[in-house]
Every structure is written in structure tokens, then in C-alpha cells.
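Why run this: before we spend reagent on co-expression, it is cheaper to look at a predicted model of the complex and decide which construct boundaries make sense. The entries below are exactly what would go into the expression plan.
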Amino acid sequence: MNSQGLETAFINRLVAGFSRSPRSRTAPHESDAELIDIFLGGIPAAAPLLAVTTDTISEEIGTGLYQDPYLFGWMAVMANLSDLAAVGAEPVGLLISETFPDEYDDCAIDKIQAGIADACVAARTHVLGGDTNSGQALSITGTALGLVNDGRCLTRKGCAPGDVLYASGPLGRGNGFALSVWGNGRSESLPGGYRPRARIAEGIVLRGIASSCTDTSDGFLCALDQLLVVNAVGFNISERWEEKLDRSSLELVRSHGLPPWLLLAGCHGEFELIFTVSESRRKLFADAAASIGWSPIELGIVTGPTGVTLPVGGALRTIDVAHLRNLSFRLPGGIGKYVEALVEYDHQMVSGG
Amino acid sequence: MNSQGLETAFINRLVAGFSRSPRSRTAPHESDAELIDIFLGGIPAAAPLLAVTTDTISEEIGTGLYQDPYLFGWMAVMANLSDLAAVGAEPVGLLISETFPDEYDDCAIDKIQAGIADACVAARTHVLGGDTNSGQALSITGTALGLVNDGRCLTRKGCAPGDVLYASGPLGRGNGFALSVWGNGRSESLPGGYRPRARIAEGIVLRGIASSCTDTSDGFLCALDQLLVVNAVGFNISERWEEKLDRSSLELVRSHGLPPWLLLAGCHGEFELIFTVSESRRKLFADAAASIGWSPIELGIVTGPTGVTLPVGGALRTIDVAHLRNLSFRLPGGIGKYVEALVEYDHQMVSGG
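The model came back. C-alpha cells follow.
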């Protein structure tokens, strides 16, 4: 397989026969949401771009990672709003298409709807419409609409060596939560639970300041690989990354005897933004972040195309992020095999294998 | 159950906890697509409304009604574009979220994508973006975006007694197709197959002329019931409705010894538009239709709230459309029971039971 990764190749195959819209301002893989010039210059004023994105919650339900119907609804909203955040868009609203199995429990339906409603309130947005169907498996597809008002687009593309890498908040809670559900056969609760919030206000601040941005919906290292491929760069993660992890998740991973960096490697994300800022804009960025009471987390630096280096087990390691990303995509054997493969990769790396 | 129908009640339950967006120009059930004032007056010019709609193709696949992967893709596009047509919108593009079962056949995936691509070409629009997932059951959710440029909205609401009822084209092919797949245990092909086209150009003509409009995605009588409930009216269908059915479907239904009006009653639609025009606008409408080479089909007349009357078996019958609509919604026993129930309703009606 080439370095672009299995999922990217699969998506490229899916879209190979599609013609590109003259309204699209973004190329495939280069932004978390599509940026659309809906009027094609038909309106005289400087019209905003429409940001649109769609995401389905089904796999997480089917595998048992999500068990609380409230979380199904919450995530159908937040996963989509997080993509809007990563392009710096202000939400206009969402459409929700839900497929319920026959005889699906009415109470569970009410909980799903409460999760949707509460997530919209939390993000100050609204459900605009939707659709219901019956089908074999429960599935919820959200589509989020947003506006980018001033033409300063935020995409995955644009960072250069020397830029500083940040996260919008602590990393690892997505994988910590997955570990709490599946870890070593003993299910336990992660203090504080798993209830990500799309970083909308932060994304708006980043527009016109950050040189690239994506969300960590599939985990930190998968997100980093997206930036790496699109920008043909590498990343050096700083010595003190472990201190910047989500505390509860770090304790959990340690109690399981697993290496903390797996919180970055696993494919269940925390829906933070990771982004880069050039040296010349760091002061501007610090002021803008402070203005909304936000303390972003510095993670490292953009380098030339030399991969991702991360201090692990007392030494600087180069991580094969494309390999890790591929592990999570259509791995025969499901989740158990996936975690085994991650641990095996850690052993090989630390033993120099 | 009250007269609003089970599906309407279910949707009302789903949205009960949602707050309404200040950007929404349409109330629930009153239009096929949502009409959204995306700028809330933030742009000085007379900005267009955004029309958005979402629809999932899963049930038709799960029940075996759709068996050709090309049709899955085609319908994921056309079902959504048909909703845009029913509000008179011009398509901007679509988002497609696809869930594939593990180990799903690569050739079938290519056929699905070809159906999507060809439907977009046929409608002169584009896929703007999407998402892929793995899950238990194949499912394709489309979301269509469109623009209504001149503020003259077309919705389900607005018709009055005396208006004339039309269809954009022959009715019955959706149910004819379903009969060809399932009918009496002998699968056969419907000449010409099933490949609906969204009536986009016709919807644009109807904007500012028709007093109400909806598409027949769930069959003609279900669509009529939507207009009946929203407008608190009734409909008299004209004597010669049988001549206006799709020819191949009519022959098929006769060869099965089934009553032709079941082509109107079944819940698998032909994706035509049904709409009403006031007497004072009939000349304007005739000219506008002729200007695009379109011959709409006159079906009957809007009446006071006295139900739907249809000449069947030599006599004028009043059809309980709410009952028929409910038959198709979550009927235990699936399709076989549904067709049995329709036939039984016909027997009761004709025998005066």
C-alpha cells in the first residue's frame, strides 16, 4: 500500500467517477468540511461560503462502543459540528436522518432525541429537518451547515516547517473512553464520561490565524497523518506531551499497564482541534485565544517530511502513522485484534524490532 | 389513532424536544424540503433561501425491493433531488454518507457509485462531499442543497377548494415496479424498469404558480393525504384517472388480477410532483408548462374537507387515505401482509363492507 493510507485510497476510489462542482472551494481530503460558493458570484456583496459536512453514527453503535442512546444522539450532532469547527464555520443548523430497527425501544428513541436536542443547545444551534426510516441496524446520519463569513478559510492545508503545533484541549479521552468500555475485559467508568463538545468558538478564532487545522475525530495520530500527507511535512512532538493528556484517561491506561502513547494512537478521538500557527502569528494567536478565555496546548513543531517523532519510553521514536491509521480501517478481527496490534507495535518499537 | 397518521405522530414525537431555528421558513410537515434563511437578513440584497433535505436509502435495500446496486446510488440522489423539486429549488449539490457492511463486494460498490454519478449528471448537479462508514447493513444517506432565488416559495400549504389537482407525469410506476419484484411470488421485469427522475425543471416552473406541491415518494395517495392534512381540504379524483396511469404498470397490475387503484395506494412512489393550481392561474400555468415542453396531467379538483373520492369499480368511493398511509408504516409482517391488507381494503370498499 502506498503512503496515502487505505481509507484515503478507498475514498479516492469512491469519488473517481464524480465530476467536481464549480462551486467547491476545497479539494478532497483538504478540509474537514466542504466549503461551497453557493452563489457562484451571483450575489454582488462579499457573500459567505457555505460549510457543509455529513457524518454517520453506526459503527460505534454496532461494535458496542456506544451503549447509551443519549450518546448516540449527542455524537450525531457533535461529530458534525466538530467538522464545522475545523473550518472555522459558524453553525447554521443540522439535518438528522435516523434509521430505527423495527420494534426499537421507545424509551431509547426518546434518549437519542434528548442527546440531539441537548447537543444543539450546548452548541447554540438547531435541527432544521430530517428523515426517519426503518432498517436492520440503528444508524443516525447528521449533516451540518455553517457559514464562513469573511472569506478567510481554515483548511487542513497551509502549514510549513517551523510552524507550531497545538491542540485545542487535552488529548486522549476518546481512547480512554474506549478502553473503559473494552479494556482487558473489565468494563469500568471513565470519571467524567465521554461527552465531547465541538470547538466552535475556538475554530472561529483560528480562522485567519492558523496555517492548518483538523479535528481529532479519529484520534490524534490519525489527524496528524492527515496534516502530514496534505502538507508534505513532518512533526516533532515535544518531550512533555504526556503531561498534556486527559488526566482520567492517563490514569486508566496506566492502571491497565498500557503505554500512554496509545491514547494518541487509538482511532477513537476526543474531537479536539489540532492546528498549526506560524511563528509570526503566535502573538496574535495568544491574544485572540485569551480573548475567549481559551488556553490552547502546545504540542510540538512542524518539520520537513521526516515523519512523526514522539518521545516514548525514554527515547525519541519515529511513528509509522500511516501504518497505525491503516490498522484501524477494516481490520479483520475487530476491536480486540486492533488493540492487540497497537500493543504489538509498541513492543516492536520500544524493543527496536 | 387520530387522523394525522402514525408517521406524522412519530415525527412529532421525535422533534418534540427540539427548539425551532429562527432561520426556518417552514413548519414541520409543510414542505418536502426545509427552506432556510441562512443569512437572517445579514446580507443586504434579496438573498435566496437555502433548500435542504435528507433521505436515507436502507429500507428498500433491506427488504429486497431494490436489488441492483446501481439503483441504490441512483435513488439516494433522486429521492433527495425530488424533495428539492417539490419546493421549486435549483440544486446546488449533494452530500452522500455511505455505510458498507464489512467485506461488501467491490463491484457492487462501483455500481452504487456509478448510479450516484449518473443521477448527478442527469440532474446537472454534483456530489460536494461525503462520508464512509462500516456497519451491519448497507445504507446510503443523501443530503441535497438547493436555492430558491426569488422568494416565491413552493410548499405543501396553500391550496383551496376549487383549485385543480395535477401530476407532473404518469402515476403508478413505483408500485408497478414493487409488484414486478414481489408480485404473487413471480418476479418479472417491468418494461422500462424503474429509474425515476426528479422533476426539477417542472418544480421551478411551479414556483409562484402552484398553490401547493409535494412529491409522490411514498405513492400518490400518501402524498395526497399530506396535502389534505396540511390544507384541511379534500380531493375529488376525476373519472378518467385510470387512463393517466403508467401503461406498463397498469398492464402488470391487470395481469395479476389486482385492482388498478392499488397503483395509487401502494407506498412505493414514482417521484412525480402532485400540485394544485387555482382557476385564475391555469392559463399562466399552461403557458409556463408549454414553454419547457411539459404536458402535466390533470387529475381532479380540491374540495372542502370531505376526504378523497375516487371512482373505483363503477362507483364513486371515499378512500380512507390516513388508514392506507398507516398500513405502510411499521406494519408487523412486512410487505406480504401490507399487500394483503391493501387487497382486503379494496374488497371491503367495493363490497360496501
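The first strand of chain B starts at residue 34 and ends at 36. The CA atoms of residues 235 and 302 of chain B lie 5 Å apart. Bring this page to Monday's planning discussion.
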